[in-house]
Amino acid sequence: MPDDDSAAVLEGRRPLRIAASRSRPPAFVSALAERGDVELVPMGSAGVKVLAVADGTVDAYVHGGGQYEWDSAAPVAVARSRGLVCTRLDGSELEYNRENPWLPDLFVCPRHWLRACVSCSAPSVSRPWSGQIARKVLEE
Known about the structure:
The chain has six helices and seven strands; from the N terminus they run αβαβαββαβββαα. It is α/β, with parallel strands linked by helices. The strands form two sheets. A five-stranded mixed beta sheet has the order 2-1-3-7-5, sandwiched between helices. The protein has a two-stranded antiparallel ribbon with strand order 4-6. α2 links the parallel β1 (16-21) and β2. α3 (46-54) runs parallel beside α4 (69-81). The radius of gyration is 14 Å and the shape is globular.
């Protein structure tokens, strides 16, 4: 059951707020923002964006431009300790301490926002938060 804030997004009374890179937001996130039901909130580092999800400043963080694992490892640990969904864009697990430290993408949102994130995907836009993420969360 969505809380009042997530209900407002699902009912179209306010846009879904997504933390985005100030300098290079992923093209699919920019395309979602053009629809009007998504608001991009420009922010600095990956840590600031993840913690903005944790404190409710934004509803989700979607990163598709790649980053090194040390850019997100600590923020993701904090987010997971708060019960947030933290996955790759395709719903697969984030893997750290690998030989190649490059992580191509990152998705973070509270579990109760997952439905809103999935609902805001347009058919004409790449669906980074596909049903795979929803299925993964429901399995946990």
